[in-house]
Every structure is written in structure tokens, then in C-alpha cells.
Write a structure and sequence with these properties.
By secondary structure, this protein is of the alpha+beta class. Helices cover 26% and strands 37% of the residues. The chain contains 2 helices and 5 strands; from the N terminus they run αβββαββ. The chain has a 5-stranded mixed β-barrel with strand order 1-2-3-5-4. Strand 1 and strand 2 form a beta hairpin. It starts with a helix and ends with a strand.
Length: 118
Amino acid sequence: MKLRNIICVLALIICSTLVFAMGGRKNFDEAGREIVTITCTVKVYGNEPHTWLGLVAKDGTEYSISADETTIASLRQKQGLVLTVKGGLETSGKESNSLELNALPGGKIYIQSVEEKK
């Protein structure tokens, strides 16, 4: 009976260790960027005729975007709507000395998918 209890306890410890070890892993894209999903709105930056788009998350974090021209055109049409955007996040941080054009403090999201939040 004692041996059976010991085996059960050991099995429980091993299973819980595996669950905790796997639960904290993040997903990454092929370029090594963390895959994130954010709820946001589209914001237009700059002055005509040199405007560019960014995303503003619910917490106020601003993100630059990288996407194909079709996605960019679609996002322009969705200004003012609440969106769910999934993509690879390349962080730059506020303290970054990045000289990249149109960089925003939250980093850059390489968009994989966009859905309207209902």
C-alpha cells in the first residue's frame, strides 16, 4: 500500500512538472519574434501626403506595423473600429535610440491576421 502511494505521488509530481514547464512557453515566428495578439485601433500619423499607420492598444501602447500593401489598405478602411491583430512583435522600447523611420515606442508588429472585434 505504501509503495502504491509513493508511486502515485511521484507520478503526480512528474506530471505537474511537465505541465508547468510547458505552460510558460511563448510562441515565436520564423524570424524569432514573439507572436502576440492585441486589441487595438488604427491611428494615422504624420501629415498629408506623408501619412502612415500605427496601432494603439487598449492600454495606450503604440505600435508600428509591417504588412503588405493589401493589409495596409484594409487597415486604412478600418480606422475607428476595434480590431484584434495577431503578429510577430519586435520590441524597441522607449529608451531605444532607433533611427528607423516611423518607429513607435511599443515596437513593430509584423501583421499575420486582422479581425474586427465584435
